[in-house]
Amino acid sequence: MAAKPKIMNAHLWLAYIAISLPLLLAFVSENNKPNLVGIVISDKKPEMNSESWFFGAYQSEMDDYNNDHWAFKEISVRLNNQFYYKAFNQIRVNGFVIGKDDYVFSESYIFSAYGDDFIGEERIRSQMQKAKVIQDSLKRYGVDLLFVFAPGKGEFCTEFIEDKYKHPVKTTNHAEFVKQCKSNGVNYLDLYTYFNLLKPNTKYPLFPKFGHHWSFYGEVLAVDTIIRHIETLHHVQLPEIAWEKTEVVDTARSRDADVLKSMNLYSNPDQNMKLAYPEVLFENDSLKNGTRVLTISDSYWYGPVYMGIPHNCFGGGQFWYYFNKVVPSPRQGEKVEVWELNLKEELEKNNQVIMLLYSDGNLGAFGNTFIQDAYEMYTSPATYWARMEKNKTIQTYAKQIREKPLLLKKATQRSKDFEIPLDSAIRLDAMKMAGMK
């Protein structure tokens, strides 16, 4: 009986060491930032001053910082994610699910494929009627407007979606947008249908298992088609893209495994899909590369940006990500957002083609506020400019939130708690910062 206290003391010491080790390592190590993808991390250690201390901000911010930088944060997250993946076939990526044969899907894109996110015929008709006004207004300045509908993985890979999501399809946002474009005479390119025509005979996958977007091979085919369509629409010649060599590998590269990276697993699953990577060559003709194309798009256009399409084929045209972030920034070393630019000048004087490219999962918010803003700018300029001026304060605070990890982290948590889009959560926080209800 006399030996028990010693055994208990040993167990207590082991427990104490286990609890204290991460804290001790945090003090000893200079950099404990976890290498995790898709998680907002508080980068900068909070500064203590009288204001932050007495108002309680320092304590809250320091708690967030320590939670992000404790020594075993990364391995704990990865082991936890691995457990859910292996035990329950779940992935710990917000908004994503796993389907059959390890295909990962954005759940919203599954809903889009089956028309569960349909926003209504009247709303889409109204948008396309406004779009026709914008198209005609731009045409007076020699600028063409083009809508491009990109395929989503949910619709393209329905055979790999779990049966619980499946039901007869009445209509979809994509079908209604195409219908209303035709009815109102709006220029459009339907890559959605084009990909489905390619599907039975495609040599290589157009969508990868562990990626959210089209495969690099599918991306190249899409870009080539877009270039040819713009040439016909705008009556110009653009630099062509070509490829003589195509490397086929069984390990996804770059964006072909973007969801896999965000899964933050301890050990990644085997990849058993042959993916193609054409070696893209650009026609080097400065006379052809003078048509500046501005692209307003969701994340699908980031691939062509990385490929070099805007620089090599679109006359250096910008990419306005979700009609918000300007890529590349027109002011070196500074992040610029669309609201900071003069929309009328940008549309009429700096570009020859305005292209809106959205995948089907984002058609519910097609163009974000571009159609509303441009329509008001052309039909009621006084109210448009007054509204832009009034919104500047909120937009300034919203930009601060997007640029500061701690503020962005809080907005991200708010969006999850209240089940609202991140942009809406950011706007609510910005309004609060501006002293508005």
**Number of helical segments with 4 or more residues:** 18
Low-pLDDT residue spans: none
| Terminal Cα span | 67 Å
Biggest sheet: strands side by side, in what order? 4-3-10-7-8-9
The number of E-state strands comes to 10
Helix and strand pattern:
HHHHEEHHEHHEHHEHEEHHEEHEHHHH
How would you name the oligomeric state of the polypeptide chains in this document?
A: single chain
Proportion of residues in helical segments: 40-55%
Largest sheet: 6 strands, mixed
Strand content: 5-15%
Q: How many separate domains?
A: 2
Mean pLDDT: 88
Q: Would you tell me the structural class of the helices and strands?
A: alpha/beta
Molecular shape = globular
Indicate the radius of gyration in whole angstroms. Answer: 25 Å
Features:
six-stranded mixed β-sheet; 48% helix; 2 domains; alpha/beta; two-stranded antiparallel sheet; 437 residues; single chain; 18 helices
Explained architecture:
Helices cover about 50% and strands about 10% of the residues. The chain has a six-stranded mixed sheet, with helices on both faces. Strands 1-2 form a two-stranded antiparallel ribbon. It has about 425 residues and is α/β, with parallel strands linked by helices. The protein has two domains: about 120-370, no CATH class; about 380-435, no CATH class.
